[in-house]
Design goal:
It is a single chain. The chain has helices spanning about 5, 20-35, 55-65, 90-100, 110-120; strands spanning about 10-15, 40-45, 85-90, 110. The longest helix has 13 residues, at about 20-35. By secondary structure, it is an alpha/beta fold. It is globular and about 40 Å long. Helices cover about 40% and strands about 15% of the residues. Strand 1, helix 2 (about 20-35) and strand 2 form a beta-alpha-beta unit. It contains 5 helices and 4 strands; from the N terminus they run H-E-H-E-H-E-H-E-H.
């Protein structure tokens, strides 16, 4: 299934990234699109313990007039994934980890895959 077909049926976005860009992605997305009714969350692939959001990430967001919506990092869990979720990862390795851990076949893409499909439209 191609991403453009998936986009018609998505109900939420999950950003699976590392500790600094993930909260930034969620905050920026929410500032731009969540009023359209499409919720988003950010999660990490593997955390041994939760950590506060990186101060530099918070500072960058504040410099652009945004308050970071994420205060503490969280690992992606089965409860985060619902029918109709679109999961975006930063790397192919993270994509494989998510697919293997949760036995997913659909709706998991890297940011690069997502941007290539969007350019093709």
């Amino acid at each position: 299934m191609f991403l453009q077909e998936v986009m018609c049926s998505i109900k939420s976005f999950l950003y699976v990234q590392v500790i600094i860009p993930s909260p930034m992605a969620e905050t920026i997305y929410k500032s731009l699109a969540e009023e359209d009714g499409l919720p988003s969350i950010s999660r990490g692939c593997r955390y041994y313990f939760s950590e506060p959001v990186n101060e530099k990430a918070e500072s960058v967001l504040e410099n652009h007039g945004l308050d970071c919506v994420v205060k503490v990092s969280k690992e992606l869990g089965k409860e985060d994934i619902t029918e109709g979720s679109l999961i975006l990862t930063m790397t192919d390795k993270q994509k494989r980890q998510v697919n293997e851990k949760f036995n997913l076949q659909d709706n998991v893409y890297t940011i690069k895959e997502n941007s290539m499909v969007r350019k093709a439209r």
